[in-house]
From TrEMBL:
This is TIGR02444 family protein. InterPro entries: CHP02444. The keyword Coiled coil applies. Residues 81-108 form a coiled coil. NCBIfam families: TIGR02444 family protein. It comes from the Bacteria. Pfam families: DUF2390 (PF09523). Keywords: Coiled coil.
Length: 159
């Protein structure tokens, strides 16, 4: 059966219970959510993690995340004021849409980089390698993401 593309996988996985809060917690600790979703996708596909591949993904993601962070910060700055100003609320929603479009472009680029990497039945360990801080809370959040990724892959494959 063909492999699910990263964007479809990311949307379905992120929509699972607990994943959004787990990803936001990891983001607050310095993690890149797009890289984490890509890592989860690579894990369920069985693509082996190695420092060279990790470096390739980070080289793609880092400049994009700097741009996306600017949009995210502005959107967050407008949160309170947008509740009182309809025009600002519409602009904030447009920022949110641009941020999501940027994340989609980033995920598509990460997929193009990694889609041809060989897969195997061996356990791949991407998520720990993408974790900026190893703590009890980050490991718990990764467990939520990893479980959701496995369930998402099974669901998308029709199992």
């Amino acid at each position: 059966m063909p492999t699910t593309d990263l964007w479809t996988f990311a949307l379905a996985c992120y929509a699972r219970p607990g994943v959004e809060s787990a990803c936001l917690e990891l983001q607050a600790q310095g993690a890149d959510v797009c890289l984490l979703l890509c890592g989860a996708w690579l894990e369920v596909r069985g693509s082996a993690s190695d420092p060279v591949r990790l470096g390739q993904l980070r080289a793609i993601a880092t400049p994009w995340q700097q741009h996306l962070q600017s949009l995210r910060q502005l959107r967050q700055q407008w949160r309170a004021a947008a509740q009182q100003d309809a025009a600002l609320h519409r602009l904030r929603e447009q920022l949110k849409s641009l941020e999501l479009q940027g994340e989609r472009v980033l995920l598509e680029r990460l997929e193009r980089c990694s889609d041809t990497w060989p897969t195997s039945a061996q356990q791949a360990h991407w998520l720990e390698a993408l974790l900026p801080v190893d703590s009890e809370s980050s490991r718990a959040a990764l467990a939520v993401l990893r479980d959701a990724a496995r369930r998402t892959q099974l669901e998308l494959r029709g199992a």
